[in-house]
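Q: What residues go here?
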């Protein structure tokens, strides 16, 4: 496939998504890689194809004492630079291709083998100051183009459609929209109806959602959408991540950070917040996967210039 947005930095994982010494396969722009973390927290990635007989290295295992990955077919071992280890020594040259990684604040970035066009954004580092990392939610491969997945994060009219059952959103007012290059910022006011007792019991995180709250969204095109809000109980940051797996498959996950004003609520609400975020991702997934082929819209809605801005960045890349 032709690479989508070559030269863009892609956030492919958070360290918490990796189990020590357990290989994981990721797909970026139609190319498979194997990713692993050793017991020291060091992270490595190679092309997922063993150069001997093309077995997937992600089906193999990690040799902890040598920090090599073993092919599941013939137990050939490769270090993090792609060099073959055999007979007690490491070859001088790599024969398995390594993938260059950039790790910042436990976030694992890569340019997927392309020359960087824009720098790795500092959005997460900037916004998470003073907050605690809660976890990752909504890890999903969505059957839909990267552009369709991207645009839903800039679509300010789908909350009271796609997400009406969860948050009972009845109105969304945009109070400001500013942008500069690949950065953008939107401030919104969301108005909600009351949730039923059963809905609250099903997801206690709804208790911390007031009838009206302000939300700030910042974008680092094309990979990140950060949603930040504050209530009397909690300061919340959700960073929605996207990267293209293939032409018709997009990977997403959400990094969640909080600061509870009442620490006793931290444990009680942690899983509920992650569950609510996962539900949002599932609802967006359903919406995207049920779209028909894109055609020119015959209806205009308010605030669509925000979505058109993102589409223009994509088309002009």
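A:
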């Amino acid at each position: 496939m032709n690479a989508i947005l070559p030269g863009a930095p892609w956030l492919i994982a958070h360290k918490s998504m990796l189990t020590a010494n357990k290989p994981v396969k990721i797909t970026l722009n139609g190319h498979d890689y194997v990713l692993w973390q050793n017991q020291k927290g060091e992270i490595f990635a190679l092309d997922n194809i063993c150069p001997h007989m093309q077995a997937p290295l992600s089906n193999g295992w990690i040799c902890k004492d040598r920090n090599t990955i073993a092919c599941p077919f013939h137990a050939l071992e490769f270090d993090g630079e792609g060099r073959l280890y055999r007979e007690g020594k490491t070859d001088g040259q790599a024969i398995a291709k390594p993938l260059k990684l950039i790790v910042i604040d436990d976030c694992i970035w890569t340019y997927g083998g392309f020359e960087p066009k824009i720098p790795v954004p500092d959005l997460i580092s900037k916004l998470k100051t003073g907050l605690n990392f809660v976890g990752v939610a909504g890890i999903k491969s969505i059957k839909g183009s990267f552009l369709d997945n991207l645009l839903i994060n800039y679509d300010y009219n789908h909350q009271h459609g796609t997400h009406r059952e969860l948050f009972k959103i009845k109105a969304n007012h945009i109070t400001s929209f500013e942008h500069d290059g690949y950065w953008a910022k939107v401030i919104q006011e969301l108005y909600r109806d009351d949730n039923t007792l059963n809905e609250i019991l099903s997801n206690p995180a709804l208790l911390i959602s007031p009838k009206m709250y302000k939300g700030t969204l910042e974008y680092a095109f094309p990979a990140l959408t950060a949603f930040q809000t504050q209530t009397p109980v909690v300061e919340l940051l959700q960073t929605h991540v996207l990267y293209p797996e293939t032409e018709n498959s997009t990977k997403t996950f959400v990094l969640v950070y909080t600061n509870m004003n009442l620490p006793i609520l931290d444990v009680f609400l942690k899983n509920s917040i992650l569950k609510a975020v996962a539900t949002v991702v599932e609802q967006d997934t359903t919406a995207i996967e049920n779209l028909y082929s894109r055609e020119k819209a015959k209806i205009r809605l308010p605030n669509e210039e925000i979505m058109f801005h993102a589409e223009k960045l994509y088309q002009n890349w």
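A: Context that may help when evaluating the design: The radius of gyration is 21 Å. The CA atoms of residues 135 and 248 lie 27 Å apart.
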